Amino acid sequence: MVHTTRRAGIVFAAATAVAVLAGCGVKGTPVAGEIDVRTLDVGSYAVDKHSFRQTAADQGALVEGMRMSRAVVPAVVIDPSLKVGQGGHVVLNNTEATTRLLAAVSKPILDRENLLTGYTASGADKSDDPGTSISTSDTTSVTNFVMRFADDDTAKRTAQELEDADFGVAPDLNKKLSVSKYPDALVHWRPGISNVGAFLAHKNFVISLFIQRPKPDADDLTSWVQKALDAQVPALDKFQATPKDGFSGLPVDPDGLLGRAVMRDRDKDTPDRDRFASYGPNDFLNIAEDETTRQRLVADTGLDAVAIADTSTVLRVRDAAAGGRLISGLVSASGSAYSPTDAPDALPGAKCLQLGSSSVHSNSAKFRCYIPHGRYVEVVISNDQSDMKQKASAAYALLANSM
User: Fold this and answer.
1) Torsion sign, CA atoms 258, 262, 268, 274
2) What residues pair up with 143 in beta bridges, in sequence order?
3) 200 and 88, same structural domain?
4) 275 CB-contact burial (10 Å; exposed 0-12 / middle 13-18 / buried 19+)
5) Does residue 330 share a domain with residue 281?
6) Measuring CA to CA, which residue among 250, 232, 229 is closest to residue 241?
7) Are residues 152 and 46 in the same domain?
């Protein structure tokens, strides 16, 4: 059974302080109705049109895991009350899977059955106790971990093996439960304890659920297992999984967003779930402190793809008007910890924020800017205000030059 919730590093990860760079000329051709990007101070950041055309090679499992972010539902989709995002991420290996998501006794099973890749998402109805990652006793939380295997038979066998191993940790205390709508679901709990674990093989996937509720009620717990499966099973049905022999040929930049991200070093282009990655919109929901508000924002703006490169994030929305609404929504969601600060004067629609010195978000970068261009919004961060302005200008120039 799952024991802890793994929290992913947020998309807008903290950047280390960098030196102030001298301005330099910018390549590009002015377009009617736009500023001449050649006049912008972009420091030493590259702003010429660029593409990452390579394939995943030996990082194919990771890239397929990123694709799976589109198929693993955020907690708020399972139930509207689960609005506090607790993170989502690709599960890189069996050790990680059995350190935070599955019981340690599960590792030999994953080793034998060859877990190919996986993605997990967690959420709750309440925030953790202040200053901790410990949920309160009256919290409802769901951790939804989807694992990919070679074929349907392997998935079915693995689900049963995982259930048997987990149940066998305390066979005299655990009790099996059932969900009538999903007769193949393998469910058990420990009477008197207010959580439940479940496994369900679906096609070549295994869904692993860990659900915590305020009270130890078996009927209530199984109703939540059904609720989670009602959301997750259809999402997997819509997902087109890549055959294992196609992993190495997956493009690292399927949506063309990584090439639009400002990077200090474009040679650092090896897939990395936090520093060089492409995701679907679900991943953007999983990190939200208020998934409900962000879900509405995603739907309103048509946000359909996210890319992270170094300390820049590029988001693709329906059109330019949607880009402006996305920025307004993200700025509003930043809360009282941030205050407005000047964006570079020449950048239309750009908004920048500064983190207050007394903020509890001590690991976050001091400055953050949102830069729109067409149907793209780029978010850049820095601990140095001069660098932040150069990076914001570089983001605008790169987005313009990439059209």
Assistant:
1) negative
2) 122, 210
3) yes
4) middle
5) yes
6) 250
7) no
CB atoms near residue 153 (< 10 Å): 11
pLDDT single digits (tens) 133-149: 777 889 999 999 999 99
pTM: 0.90
* Strands in 112-215 per DSSP E: 117-124, 141-148, 175-177, 186-189, 195-202, 205-212
> Which domain range does residue 157 map to?
60-238
Q: What is the token pair recorded at 259?
A: 């090439």
- Structural domain count of the chain: 2
Q: For a pLDDT cut of 90, what percent of the chain falls above it?
A: 84
| Domain boundary, last residue among 238, 273, 304 | 238
Rounded to whole angstroms, the Cα distance separating 39 from 28 reads: 10
Same domain, 103 and 153: yes
Same domain for 231 and 306? Answer: no
Dihedral of CA atoms 331, 334, 338, 340 in degrees, nearest 10, equals 10
Residues 216 and 324 in one domain: no
* Residue 123 belongs to domain with CATH number: 3.40.1000.70
Q: Which of these, 205, 190, 209, 86, lies nearest to 143 by C-alpha position?
A: 209
Closest to 22 (Cα-Cα) out of 38, 5, 48, 44? 44
Residue for token digits 């932040």? 388
